[in-house]
Amino acid sequence: MPIALYALTAGAFGIGVTEFVIMGLLLNVGADFGVSIAAAGLLISGYALGVVVGAPLMTTATARWPRKTVLLVLMAIFTIGNAACALAPSYAALMAARVLTSFAHGTFFGVGSVVATGLVPRERRASAIAVMFTGLTVANILGVPFGTWLGQHFGWRASFWAVTAIGALAFVVIAGFVPKIAAPKDAGDWRADLRALARRPVLLGLLTTVLGWVGVFGVFTYIAPLLTEVTGFAEGAVSPILLIFGGGLVVGNLLGGKFADRRVVPTVLGSLLALAVVLGLMTFALHSHWLAIVFVALLGAAAFATVAPLQLWVMEKASGAGESLASSFNIAAFNLGNAIGAWLGGFVIEHGPGLTAVPWVAALAPLAGVGVALLSLRLDRRDAKSLVTPTCETPAL
C-alpha cells in the first residue's frame, strides 16, 4: 500500500478520536457548564447530525477543487473546530464548535475513499478503503481511551487540545505524502451529481448502509448497561472489554476489505448476514461472562467487516458523475444509522420488551439490509435483461 494511504489513515484517526472521545467526558463537560448528562449527550447527537448535513454540502461546495486541496481544507476545518471546542466558554459555544468540526467528517471519508481507491490497482480498492478506515478503528482502541484519561486527569479541554495537535499533524502528513490529484473532469455539475445520487441502485445501497448500522449502534450505544445489568460485570470491567471490541473492529475492517477485493456483492451480503447472526446470538451469550466477551469481540469484527464493502458498493453504483457525493452520502448514511440505532435501542428499553431484547431486535435491521441488497440485485438484473432486446430478421421470400 502506498504511503499516501497511511497519510489518510492519520486524518481518519484524528476524526475518530474527536467523534467518540466526548462519550467518556460527558460527566466532566456537564459539571463544568452546569448542564444535565442528557444535555451533554446532545453533543454526540449534534455531531452526528452535522455529519449528515455537512457531507453533501461540503462535497458539493468543493467539487471543482483538486482532491488534495479538499482534504487539506477539511483537516484545517477539523483542527480549527477542535481548538474552538477547547476554548468554548459555554455549552452553546461547544455545541457550535462540535457541529463545525463535524462538517469535515463525511466529506473527508467520502473524498478520502475516492482518493484511496485511485492510489491502488482496481483489485485492491476495497483494501485501500479499509486501510484508511483503520485510523477510525485504532482511534477507538487507543485514541479514545487515552483522550478520556487525559480529560479526566487534566480537564476535558486538554482532550480537545490533544485532538487539535493530531489534526495539525495530519494536515502536515497529508500535505507531504498525498499526491496532487485534479478534480474529476465532470466535477462541478451538481445537477448531474444529484441525478447520479438519485439513481435507484445508489439509493438502495445507501439504505442498506443505514440498516446495517442501525443494528450496530442499537446494541453498542447500550453496551455498558448490557454488560453490567444483564451479564453482571462490574462497571470497572466495561473499559477493558471495550478494548476487545476495538480489536474486533481492526480485524473485521481488514478482513472485509480483503474479501471485498475479490467479490464485492457476496461480501456485502455475507458481512450483513454475519452481523445479524452475531446480534441475534448475543441475546443468549450475554448471560455468560466468557461468551459475552467473545461476542463483544465478534460484534466489533462483524460491524466493521461491512464498512469497506458497503462503501465500495455505493461508489461503484455511482461511478463517474456523483461518485464523490455518493461516497460522502454513504458516510452520512453510517451516521444516520448510528442515530436511528441509538433511538431504537432506547425505544426497546423504555417502551418494548426491555434491555435484554435489544440485541435480537437490533439483529432485524441488518437482516432487512440483506433483503434490500437482494432486491437491488434483482432489479439490476431485470434492468440488464430489459436492455437486451432480441432482434429477428424476416427471411427474404
From TrEMBL:
The residue ranges of the Major facilitator superfamily (MFS) profile domain are: 4-381
Q: Which GO terms describe its molecular function?
A: transmembrane transporter activity
Q: What is its main location?
A: membrane
**Alphabetical keyword list:** Cell membrane, Membrane, Transmembrane, Transmembrane helix
| KW Oxidoreductase (keyword) present | no
TM segments? 5-27, 33-58, 70-93, 99-120, 127-146, 158-181, 202-224, 236-256, 268-286, 292-313, 325-345, 357-377
Which top-level group of life is the source organism from? Bacteria
Give the membrane topology, semicolon-separated if more than one.
Multi-pass membrane protein
Q: Name one GO cellular component term.
A: plasma membrane
Whether Ribonucleoprotein counts among this entry's keywords is: no
Compartments in which it is found: Cell membrane
Q: Which InterPro entries match?
A: MFS, MFS_dom, MFS_Efflux_Transporters, MFS_trans_sf, Tet-R_TetA/multi-R_MdtG-like
Tell me what this protein is called. Answer: Arabinose transporter permease
- Its source organism is Pandoraea eparura
